[in-house]
Amino acid sequence: DGPDDVTGLWVVRPTMDNDVRLTGIIPLASIARACHLMPVIDHNVRLPYDFHFSDTLDAFQAYYVNTYVDYHSHETVL
User: Fold this and answer.
1) Has residue 78 got a pLDDT over 50?
2) How far apart are CA 2 and CA 43, in angstroms?
3) Pairing assessment for the beta strands 37-39 and 16-17 based on DSSP bridges
4) CA-to-CA distance for 64 and 11, rounded, in angstroms?
5) No. of H helices and E strands in the chain?
6) Which residues pair with 10 in a beta bridge?
7) Banded model confidence at residue 56, pLDDT cuts 50, 70, 90
8) What is residue 55's predicted lDDT score, i.e. its pLDDT?
9) From the CB of residue 29, how many other CB atoms can be counted at a distance below 10 Å?
10) What DSSP assignment string belongs to 16-55?
């Protein structure tokens, strides 16, 4: 309903049906603008040493949408 009280960032969550994540394929041509997502992490949770960044979208339940990132940031991501 509004931004997070502490960070001021919007929080997004995947759509769930019971404990199953509902997914779909989004054609690249339909994406108007990329966004920078940061996982919402509990302070008591520690990531394993061998955690790979490509598992991030599956590993967390919610994400902050970084509204402070520059729209050119996708050019610097490798």
Assistant:
1) no
2) 22
3) unpaired
4) 5
5) 1, 5
6) 65
7) confident
8) 86
9) 6
10) EETTEE------GGG------EEE---TT----TT--GGG
> With 0-12 CB in 10 A as exposed, 13-18 as middle and 19+ as buried, what is 63?
buried
Nearest of 3, 74, 62, 68 to residue 38 by alpha carbon = 62
**From the centroid of its chain, how far is CA 28?**
17
Q: 0.85 exceeded by the pTM?
A: no
- Read off the pLDDT of residues 6-38 as tens digits, 9 standing for 90 and up: 888 888 877 778 877 777 777 777 766 667 788
Q: How far is CA 12 from the centre of its chain?
A: 7
Kindly state the tokens that stand for 7. Answer: 């960070």
As a whole number of Å, the CA-based R_g of the chain is: 14
